[in-house]
Amino acid sequence: MKPKVSIIIPVYNVGSYLARCLDSVINQTYRNIEIVIINDGSKDESLSICKYYCGIDPRIKLITQNNKGLSGARNTGIDNASGDYICFVDSDDWIERDYVSFAIDIINRTNVSLVVLGYYNSDDLGSRIVNKGWLDKKETVFAHDEALYLLVEDQQIKSHAWDKVYHRNLFNTIRFPDGKNYEDLFIMHVIFDACSEIAISKQPKYHYYNREDSIARNYKTKNILDYFEAEFQRRSYMEVMHPELVALQNTKLMELLLSYYPKFGKSMSDSKVKYAKEYLIFKKYIEKIQMFYSYKHENFTVNKYNVMYKAFSLHKLTYKFISPIANAFISRIKRSKHKFAIKIILYKSKDFVRILGSAAKKKKYILIGIPEYDNLGDVAIGYAEQLFMRNNLPDGYELLVISENNFSKYIRRIKKAVNREDVIFIQGGGNFGNQYFDQEQLRRKIIISFPNRIILMPSTFFMSSMEKTAKKYAAFYNKANITIFVREQYSYNYMKRYFSNKIFLVPDIVLSLENLTPSCELRSGIGVCLRNDIESKISTSEKTKIKDSLFKIADTISVFDTCINMPVTEDRQDEALHACWKDISRYKLVVTDKLHTLIFCVLTRTPCIALSNYNYKIKGTYTWFKDLDYVAYLDDFEQIEVLAQKFIREENFTLYPDLRDKFIPLVLEVRGKIQ
């Protein structure tokens, strides 16, 4: 039987172009397709047009949601696609009638999991073929490393989501980042890295329509900052997984800076002082690019497809661009309400420098990587680590806590303050592996910077393609003086297989907390806390079904989140966490697929149904307290209603179990007593 192909079409206010797009899709010569249309909160006639096409083609699956942006719409499409293969068509573009059949024919002949197709640049004047030079071959099959090089080079292969046909499995653990423009640039290198071979054909089968109001032509501040963020994330990924491509990515960043800075400068000069924050972010990007080019000549590669300056004085040219705008913004900031906030930031920075100076001659345990962002799960990890370490410090040692931001900002000062007998601790959590490369880059920078004894606090280890990349990933750590603690059996088994370091299994560090806010005597309603990021495996339709099931049991369903949309600095951790725990303890039941929401329920003795996420961290952590009668783990969402009824009726639950003996390996390591 021919494989089924899901064509995902996000729709938002494209009434003028939508019929052309849908006509091209429903008339494909390849018939075994499903058409997944996501109406992303359109306010024009787009929804009416979609409903009309639903009436004439039963293969169309129409989903309507509140506006989540292009990433959110594509992710909803992926969650609801049932095909063996997936492709994306933007709703103002259109495709040739043999688009799908051409791609599937290549897949059948080459047995690849991803096909890149050619496309036309189209506008109201006509269509022009992109990359004519490759038209002499029907397709070329590239090995994994060759294709990845071409993607980073960004000439023959672009990072567009819409000119490719993907095997469904490539999106098992990957989603587009919510709220970002240039969303495909954030993930395409990860998708390529998961393929053993990739077929590329430049036969044009897709029409990309150039609209005057498209994101690619819009030089607003957010668009350009998202573009830079995506390219920097790609560089972080290459630094860990493909160091041989870092120089090429450096060149891309420099090209980007030279191309976009004048446009960004115009946008900023037209903006109000409220964009000072964005300017400071961009300035940090510029300083990083300057750093990449300031030391070793081999960090610079001239792209043969573009005219580039060969001299390293490029960064001086960059600062010529910056000076007038920087001066203007500084003078504005001094006259604005931001002046007080900047004084506070400077004060905190000076305070940290002073603490570093006083700690230099003392014996220290140094905890690096404490987050100051809005995720209370990560905040709780840092909070619990600090308490745990203070309770187990050896005599004569002090604890120095360094946030992610301060480590990056003051690395040189920190190096001077660290003595040989000091012990370095790295913040734990769910980011050990190849899913969060900014965190991986931070860990590696710490290990490279210090020859000291290093301890990684309890973490989950997860690789998107375990067998293929784990050995390469582990090679770095196997050379380091690091002891690794993991928080569930799955991570322990994988790491014992690939890593030669000392590895110990202990619970999540947040489970070491005691004397939390007492459980609420008068509980009511059901709280629902579900993920909206790459770690979620619950589709939008499944979330709706879950909520509908819960409404049969309780009159009040409250949706809440442990990401609170405001940074949690070190001085606010205690306040923010206790407020969260108090809020959770007022529910009769919580349903969640977030690990630390589950743990918060355990600690506040709040009945909880935990649902699986994209990896094993929830299922694995659940085994530490699986005997509790007020907590349950489900892989099958169909059982939620029955289990929820049981928890709502029950009132007498056991107390939280004592896990102190499970932390003994970590206690001994902190105290320096493990041999």
Give the beta-strand count.
Answer: 22
Question: In whole angstroms, how far apart are the ends?
Answer: 60 Å
Mean pLDDT: 81
- CATH fold group of the largest domain: Spore Coat Polysaccharide Biosynthesis Protein SpsA, Chain A
CATH architecture of the largest domain: Alpha-Beta Complex
Note poorly predicted spans: 132-136, 294-347
Overall radius of gyration = 27 Å
How would you classify the helix and strand content by structural class?
Answer: alpha/beta
What is the share of helical residues? 40-55%
Could you give me the name of the CATH homologous superfamily of the largest domain? Spore Coat Polysaccharide Biosynthesis Protein SpsA, Chain A
Number of helices: 23
Strand content: 15-25%
CATH class of the largest domain: Alpha Beta
